[in-house]
Fold this protein.
Amino acid sequence: MQSLTILGATGSIGLSTLDVVSRHPQRFRVFALTAHRQAQALGDLCLRFAPRYAVLADAGAAAALQQRLAQAGCATEVLAGERALVEVAAHGDVDTVMAAIVGAAGLAPALAAARAGKRILLANKESLVMAGDVFLAACRAGGAAVLPIDSEHNAIFQCLPETARGLRGSGAAVPGEGAAGGQTAYGEGSPPAAALAGVRRILLTASGGPFRQASLAEMEEASPEQACAHPNWSMGRKISVDSATMMNKGLELIEAFYLFGLPGPQLDVVVHPQSIIHSMVEYEDGSVLAQLGHPDMRTPIAHALAHPQRIASGVSPLSLAAIGRLDFEAPDLQRFPCLRLAHEALDGAGAAPCVLNAANEIAVAAFLAGELRFTDIAQVNDSVLQVLGSRAAGRDVDEVFAIDDEARALARRQLMRCAA
Ligand code: NDP
Ligand code: MG
C-alpha cells in the first residue's frame, strides 16, 4: 500500500491521478488532498476518497469545507494555509507526493517533500524552473526520488538507459523502489556524464498548440477561450495558455536540463501536431527511441505511480492504423518568441529561468483576466528577462523567492506600459 498526498487534487492532474488511483484500491491509500480555494470540489473528493487530511490554502474556504464535512460525518481533518500544505507533503506517514499545484505556489511543498525524502511525482515544473539547483540539492539531502509526470519528461525517462534516469549531478536519482528503497540509479555524487554516454540529443515534441497555423495578426486578437482550446490535451488554464505561446515547451526545455543533465545545445524541440509521440532520445549510433500513447495524462501518471511496474490507467489502446499518419515540423521562433526566450534563459542560466517563469505567470494571469493581448505575453517576458536575467541564481529558497518577487514587480510595471 502506497500512502499518497496529492497536492493540487482539484486540478487537471490531481483529478487524473485520483482516476488512476481509484482503479487500484489495493495499491494506493489517499493520505491527504489539497487545493487552493475550491471547497466544494475538494469536499466531494473527501467524501469519495476519505483522506486523513484535506488542506485548503485559503482559510475562509477551509472553514466552509470543515463545516460541510462535519455535517456529512466525514472523519477527514481539515487544515488551512501554506504551512499545512508543507506539513502534509512532508508527513512521516506519506510515501509518495503528487506535486500538481500550478505555478510558484507549488515550490514550497515540493521542496518539503524533497527534504523529507519522499517519492515525488513531479508535475509542477515550476519547482525545477525556478529553483533547479536548490530543489535538486534538497532531493540529494533528503534522499528523495523524482519521477517526472510532464508527458515529455516521462517519455524521455522511459527512453533513457536505466542508469541515466536520474537527477543532474545527484546521487538521489530515481530508484526502482522509490525513496524508501534507498536505491539510486548512480552512486552518491557521481556525475551523470558517464550514464548519459551514447545519448546524442533529447527531442521534446510539441503539439504547436491552438495557434500552430495562426498568423501573427490572428494571434494578436486571440481571446483567453481561444488560447485555452488546446487541440489535443485537456489541461488547466495557465498551462493551456503556455501551450498556445509555446512558453510551456520553453519551460520544459529548462525542466529537461535539470532532470536529465544534458546542456541546452543537446535539447531540441520538434512540432508534432498529433501528440502521439511524447518525446524522443537520440543515440550516437543513430537510434531514436520514442514513447507513444494517446494524449492522456493518466498514462504518465500511472507509469510514475507504479514504477518500475506497470498498471492499468484507463487509457484506451493506441491504434496507429486509425491515426494513420504522424507529422513533424520545425518550431517557428518568429511567431512563438517565448521558445527563443527559454533557450536564452537556459544559455544564461543563473536566475534567468526563475525570472522568466515569474514574468510569464504575471503576464498569463493578466491575459486570462482580459488585461493583456496574447502577443504581449512574450513582450512582457522578454523585457523582464533582459533587465533581470543576468542575476545570479538564488542559493536558497528565500533568495529564489526574492528574485521571483522582483521579477513579478517588474512584470506588473511592464503590464501597465502595454496597457498604456
Ligand atoms: P490546474 O489549474 O488544473 O490545477 C491547479 C491545482 O493547484 C488546483 O488543485 C488548485 O486548487 C491548486 N492551486 C492553485 N493555486 C494554488 C495555491 N496558491 N496554493 C495551493 N494550491 C493551489 O493545473 P494543472 O493540473 O493543469 O497543472 C498542475 C501542474 O502540472 C502545473 O505545474 C502544470 O504545469 C503541470 N502539468 C500539467 C499538465 C496537464 O495536463 N494539466 C501536463 C504537464 C504538467 P483550486 O482548484 O482550489 O484552485
Ligand atoms: Mg508537457
User: Anything to note?
Assistant: Confidence is low (pLDDT under 50) at residues 168-191. Residues 150-152, 252 surround magnesium ion (ligand 2) (CB under 6 Å).
